[in-house]
Amino acid sequence: MPRNAYVTDLKTLQGECAANFIRLSRLLGDLEAGETREVALVNRGRCLGALCLELQERAPYTSIVRVSQRGALDSVIESPRMRVHLYHDVRMAEVTDFQRQRHFHGRYRYPNARMHQPDEKLQLNRFLGEWLEHGLAHGHSDLPQLP
User: Fold this and answer.
1) Of the residues 4, 39, 60, 78, which has the maximum number of CB atoms within 10 A of its CB?
2) 51 and 126 in contact (C-beta within 8 Å)?
3) What are 81-137's pLDDT values in tens digits?
4) Nearest of 26, 147, 32, 36 to residue 81 by alpha carbon
5) CB within 8 Å of 125: residues ≥ 6 apart
6) Which secondary structure element, helix H or strand E, spans residue 138, and what is its range?
7) Are 133 and 23 in contact (CB under 8 A)?
C-alpha cells in the first residue's frame, strides 16, 4: 500500500523557530559579534561538557550564531554543531547548516541520496530547541542569572 507524501507543517515549523529565537536570545544576552559564551552542562553534579554559542555576525535584521558542544568525548566522536540564522524582524531562528550540510528543504522524498528524513528541517529545528532548552534548564555559567 503506498504511503501518503509528507506535507510540510509550516505552523509547527514556524512555532519551533519562534521558540528557538526566544531561547537563543536568552542565552546570548548582550553578546557582541565575534564573542563566544559557554554554558556548562551539568547532570547530578557531573560536568558533561559545554554548550558553546559563538555570535559570528550581527546586523540590524539578522544574526548568525554557531552552536556547538564541547565535551570529554571530542577526540572519539564528532560533537554536534550547527549554524543558526536569527531573523530579528520576525523573531525566528532557523538552522541553516548542520554538520557541514547546508540548505535544508522543507520536504524530502524518501529514500534519498543523503538519507534525509522527509521532515529533516523540522527535526533539526526541534533538536536545536531541545538542546537550548537543556542549556537553559541545566546549564551553569559564571555570568549573572539569565532572564
Assistant:
1) 39
2) no
3) 999 999 999 999 999 998 777 777 666 666 767 666 667 788 899 999 999 998 898
4) 36
5) 13, 16, 17, 20, 94, 95
6) helix 120-138
7) yes
User: Got the DSSP string for 65-114?
Assistant: EEEEEE-TTTTTSPPPEEEEEEETTTTEEEEEEETTEE---S---SS-TT
Q: What is the pTM of this model?
A: 0.82
Site of grid cell 564541547:
70
Terminal C-alpha separation, the chain: 51
Nearest CA-CA partner of 75 in 49, 36, 56, 110:
49
Give pLDDT, residue 147: 42
pLDDT at 13: 87
Give the largest CA-CA distance in the chain: 57
Q: Hey, what long-range contacts does 114-120 have (CB within 8 A, 24 or more apart)? A: 118/6, 119/6, 119/8, 119/9
DSSP code of residue 33? T
Exposed e or buried b per residue across 109-143, where buried means at least 16 C-beta atoms within 10 angstroms of its C-beta: eeeeeeebebbbbbbbbbebbebbeebbeebebee
- Give CA–CA dist 147/66, Å, rounded: 21
